[in-house]
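Lab notes, practical 5.
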Amino acid sequence: MSNLISFTDKGLYCVQGNFYIDPWKPVDKAIITHGHADHAYLGHRNYLCHPYTKTILQLRLGDNNYQTLEWNEIINLNGVKVSLHPAGHIIGSSQVRLEYNHEVWVVSGDYKVEDDGISGQFEPLKCTTFITESTFGLPIFKWKPQEEIYSNIINWISKNKENGKTSVLLAYSLGKAQRVLQAIKETTQTIFAHGAVFNLQSMLIDDGWNLTPVERITPETPAELLKGTVVVAPPGADGTPWMKKFNPYSVGVCSGWMQVRGNARRRNVDAGFVLSDHADWNGLIQTVKETGAERIFVTHGFQSAFSRYCNEQNIAIAAEVKTQYGNEDEEAVQENVKQESGI
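Output from the prediction step:
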């Protein structure tokens, strides 16, 4: 079995096709799986991505040489057949399928298997080699149906209203925020948002997405107007002076990391809702099996635990790969998980 993709200090490199996938250093040709900052960097000469991702990249990276490819559309790059397929992670997120010399490689990027109604239904692809994330690659991470989580969030908002508190929901501005906003749109007449959430939500609505509109919070927004309302903000807003305007308020974090007992307490928040844009333990195993891959490479997350399990269970020949995907916040929480899990 050949190595159609090499793991370099710039990123995942397809030697035959002469292009990179989600490189973290400037390259000539980059295929981008999705618009999150750890997968989409500034400085590449040429970008190839799904049309939905192009809109996001234009907002985040500005004007560049973008080429788009619809899901299931095939192009030929130096003899390598390349196509994009839904990853279900966030809007526009795609897996990259490469076919060359009777071998099929799939780079999944980030993915989740439950259909959130916005990001596209994840599509398992048959392949000989599969490159998978493992953000939540431990058995403790098993998600409940999203509708159950949404119901819990709505009930929490109702209780806060009864107690005269503003509900501040912390969710990543790209991906999580869109899901949360759709889930809570009937809870209040106006949903207020941090500028980072407002900018992305407004851009997506302008691009034709039927998403929940929000009102931006500015320095001029009267504090009285915000009392007892619902506010959606990125995690980075927590603990900043920006939050003072909402007093009295209750903070809820929407994150898969809330699965671990104690993370809500460590972050000093009032509620934790286990809502993730990544596959859980069962989803990762299910996906690897469905690909039928003989070999898998495991990137960011709990690579060691997940690859070891795949090898021990004879699911596939698994190996760990070091990349620059993931972020510092995730790494800090992972340390807490390791301590509680004894790994």
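Observations recorded by the TA: Residues 146-162 form the longest helix (17 residues). The domain at 5-141+277-341 is CATH 3.60.15.10 (Metallo-beta-lactamase; Chain A).
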